[in-house]
Amino acid sequence: MLAHNHSAKEVIEDLKSDEKKGLDSAQVKERLDRDGLNKLKESAKKTNFAKFLDQFKDVMILILLLAAVVSFIVAIMEQHLSGFFEPLLILLIVVLNAVVGVYQENKAEKSLEALMNMTTPQSRVIRDGKEEIIDTQNLVVGDIIRLEAGDFIPADARLISANALKSDESALTGESVPSDKNASVIIEEKEALGDRINMVYSGCTITNGTAVAVVSATGMNTEMGKIANLLDSAIDTKTPLQERLAVLGKYLGIAALIICVVIFVMGIVDGMPIMEIFMTAVSLAVSAIPEGLPVIVTVVLSIGVERMARQNAIVKKLPAVETLGSTSIICSDKTGTLTQNKMTLVKAYYEGAESEAISDHNSDDIKQLLTYAILCSDGSILVEDGKEVSVGDPTETSIVSAGMKNGIFKDEINKEYPRLFELPFDSDRKMMSVINEINGKKIVITKGAFDVMEGRCKGDLKKAEQVVEDMSKEALRVIAVAYKEIDTIPDDIDSDMLENDLTLLGLVGMIDPPREEAKEAIRVCKKAGIKPIMITGDHVVTAEVIARQLGIFNEGDRAITGLELSAMSEEELDQQLEHISVYARVSPEDKIRIVRAWQKKDKIVSMTGDGVNDAPSLKAADIGCAMGITGTDVAKSAADLTLMDDNFATIVEAVKEGRGIYSNIRRVVGFLLGTNIGEIALVFFSMLFWKVSPLLSMQLLWINLVTDSMPAIALGTEAIDGDVMNEKPRPKKEGIFAHGLGVQVVLQGIMFGGLSLIAFHFGYEHGGLTTARTMAFIVLGLSQVHHAFNMRSNKSLFKIGVFTNKTLNKAVALSAGLMLLVIFVPPITEIFGLTQLPIDLYAFSWFLSFVPIIVLEIVKALKLVK
Ligand code: ATP
């Protein structure tokens, strides 16, 4: 049956569902088994084997393998048993390297997938007579769903009822203007998708109104499923830093390659065995070309992303992690983010009378005011196990609760004065209206922000204005309640018609205390050179009072309204921008203007939002933060970050993590490049001075695998230094080698090279080439292991605690263990072309490998590194 071509009732019957009770669990199970999950098919994932093969796409690895094959053939020809070890070991090391590569890739992928799962969309359905929230993928045909503004439509569905419903169907039809929906019409069979106004379609969004609908198609059977071949689930993981590093890696790679060619030519000129020098040059290229940098950065980023998730900040786009660290402006909503969103009604004013504190025996006037306000509210208070549980908008539940104190119960008055129509609340209008039948008359009740309602009410409102001012100064949110009588309910109702010519009934004032943790977070922000700004839909005076309590608003600052902002020219705004810390009664367009104004001053702006209309400003901001609890699907999908607890402090935590992750990436990059330069320096200079290659190919590859890659990843897990929030935000364009990291890397590389050269020279003098190689191997390998500890912090190791990074301890123990195995276990030593040393040479080598720790401790004490 074509759902758009029949009435909702027929569709529900055909699908054996029930408008009020929905499906029962047996039906759901049967349909899930029959139709499968409600999701689009994902493109096939790469298998581990495919990933493994991908690791061999690197040209240098292929050359190395080719070289191994050649050396294998030479060994066969020469019939020399030990000749087989080298190619076999190279093969083994290359395979191990590839395994580590696959491991890293999987780790990054898994944590990103886990994040995707944390943000799986959910839907509100009625099943077994009860309203439930379920994962969207478990929806089945026949389910009765509820939709409201900001929701993603979870499946194709026939509307049963719709209130001022509009849907943005651009994803499906390309039409960018949201289309009006109507549940009661029946559409011709052949009508195009865009004209089927009694249907809503999966993948589109609700931009306005509310609706109840019955699901008519799920998964690949939806219209979206028919046109979308396969859903590409891969997250875009390329961050600007990764791109920059990939470019850097390429340049350094070319440089390393040139050096390798030079080394090769030098070797040939000096008459060294071609095979040996060729193998060394290729192995050096494989070890020293930093082609793995972007992958390691992904791993470090994804470790950070996991850590942020544990603190309730879900990152949706990897580049956001990087940008977070540079955040210099945080624009935050007030209600729920900076305040607790636990509203309590404390005062009420009946037009013309005196304000009253809310108690359990308010005057009859106030009781009437509360009754009207409750009739115009959707929030309710349920009593479960003797406890009161608020369901819905806290602004409304606070009104319902004040009514209960005075013996007015929502269920009872709703029965007595039934609701005939509603125009839902939205942050643009800042009002909500209903039509109820009261004592046989049709009464429109509107509640909303006083300043918007003022122009829509009749009579002199001077006294009410004063009351609003007074309540606002006490940090109260003030809601006005007004009404009018109408004769008939028109067919086409809109706000201008309904919400005009009203009579003000009174005002209610509610308190919403600031969040305790927000105060501390704002203090941290300021110390970290970040300016917090409050942007709210609330009244300017209320907003300013709360901003003062929180420390956002300081003496000399300004609090302005959206109207005042609109009246400002670009130049005026540019001039005033630094001084405005509160924007009240703003519209979504105002938010974009504020973001752009700060961005013009080269600031990185983070902006919070929850509604449908916030999506553009979330996108415009450098970091869009959506609310996890109160946020709409649309806002979440536009944002870079979702705050699972809607809390301002979480943004500040995320910024801290962002800064920490960036400094960890710097550490990892510094460590890897430093060690690579060390390897190149050792080989180059020993070829120059001794005319021999200081390390055999497998020795070089082993060091690269065991002492480079493993500690590098572990460094990425380093705990965040508390000091990161004592510094100013990192400028957007600052390169990764800023603050002397570049120089540091080169000097450290020279130090590794120098120390290994000393070892090589000493070994040569005391025992010949194999002894020299063994000593150089020990010093180069172990000094890198030791150096991993140096790179943990710019503070002394003894200050931060030598063994406080447990992951690094394990990685280093493994690296050192594998190194010791090769150094001390005789058969393995031999296979690697090394030899056993007298105890004093071991001791000397170990001492040399320890030197980086001593040097770096001195450098740190002299504060030469930043
Ligand atoms: P923020 O933007 O900081 O979250 P806010 O909650 O005040 O602040 P909105 O939700 O856009 O922002 O509300 C704007 C104004 O609309 C409120 O100040 C209040 O006057 C009015 N308002 C809020 N909720 C309702 C409601 N349920 N019914 C009627 N009016 C409301």
Automatic annotation (TrEMBL):
Entry's transmembrane regions: 59-77, 83-103, 251-269, 281-303, 668-690, 696-715, 736-760, 772-790, 811-829, 841-859
Residue ranges of domain Cation-transporting P-type ATPase N-terminal in the record: 2-76
Membrane topology is: Multi-pass membrane protein
Matching entries from Gene3D superfamilies are given as: Calcium-transporting ATPase, cytoplasmic domain N, Calcium-transporting ATPase, cytoplasmic transduction domain A, Calcium-transporting ATPase, transmembrane domain, HAD superfamily/HAD-like
Q: What superkingdom heads the lineage?
A: Bacteria
Q: Provide the protein's localization.
A: Membrane
Family matches, as InterPro entries = ATPase_P-typ_cation-transptr_C (IPR006068), ATPase_P-typ_cation-transptr_N (IPR004014), ATPase_P-typ_cyto_dom_N (IPR023299), ATPase_P-typ_P_site (IPR018303), ATPase_P-typ_TM_dom_sf (IPR023298), ATPase_P-typ_transduc_dom_A_sf (IPR008250), ATPase_P-type_domA (IPR059000), HAD-like_sf (IPR036412)
Annotated keywords: ATP-binding, Membrane, Nucleotide-binding, Translocase, Transmembrane, Transmembrane helix
CDD domains, per this entry? P-type_ATPase_Ca_prok (cd02089)
Pfam families, sorted: Cation_ATPase (PF13246), Cation_ATPase_C (PF00689), Cation_ATPase_N (PF00690), E1-E2_ATPase (PF00122)
Q: NCBIfam families of this UniProt entry?
A: ATPase_P-type
For this entry, the protein name equals Ca2+-transporting ATPase
